[in-house]
Amino acid sequence: MATQTGLGPATLRERGTLPGGLREAPKPPKGLTGPLGWVEQLTGMTLLTLQVMKAAISPPYNWGGEFIEQCWLVTKRAFIPLLFCTLVFSYGAPGVSGGSILSTLATTDRLGAFAVMASVRELATWINGMVVAGVAGTAICADLGARKVRDELDALAVLGTDLVKVLLVPRFIALGVMTVIFNYWNTAISLVGQLIADIAVWNETSAGYVSTFASNFTIAEVVFNTLKVLTFGFIIAVVCCYKGMNAKGGAAGVGRAVNQAVVVSFCAVYVYNYLLNSLLLGAFPETATLR
pTM of the prediction? Predict the structure, then answer.
């Protein structure tokens, strides 16, 4: 056919016709790029979240071993950085700097009340989300991305493995659970850091710190604190898993996926933190004042 028409195989292939009259299979459309690329990614993350939720509640529940392994991964990577960052930041930012502001108003005895806003509501939860995303989320993204570019995920799918249930469900739940557990430990460390600054720098008493803290601490703070970090964990999980599962381009592509996962996770945590704090202050106006 190519000889009769004078067209070579390359020319026929460009026209979508192969030698022998066969038609070339249509190529799948490329994803959205440019300013609209985030729409495709947001849609993909939403669909992935729904798939994970469905797989998590559907039997069989055979992801327990992988869940424990992922919990241990998050613990060994995030425990020490969380301890160090929280203690240093809480001592310096709300402890010393916040105390300096209160000192100009001659109200350093209210540092315990300030700790509710600074640590329970903001600092501890924010550091928790940043560290978990930066060390645990990136590890999960890199692991899934490396499996993707080595075609391990495709091989597992060919063998009939449910990738969502086996790989994604335990990672989602592990990040959500461990972020909440770390949050209570993180909040306690943050309060200790501020207490040290209160005593060592501003010469206040621990009894006064505890008393003013208790007068401002409410059940609403606990509920919103737990809800916030739980959602942080799921946001980090969906972003890092999506980026890892869709990595392409070899080792360089895995690196790009990890970098994108960190940036997107940080931005999502910032936005969600602002929205939830606004909801807390709107629903419970008394939390906006130091009593």
Answer: 0.81
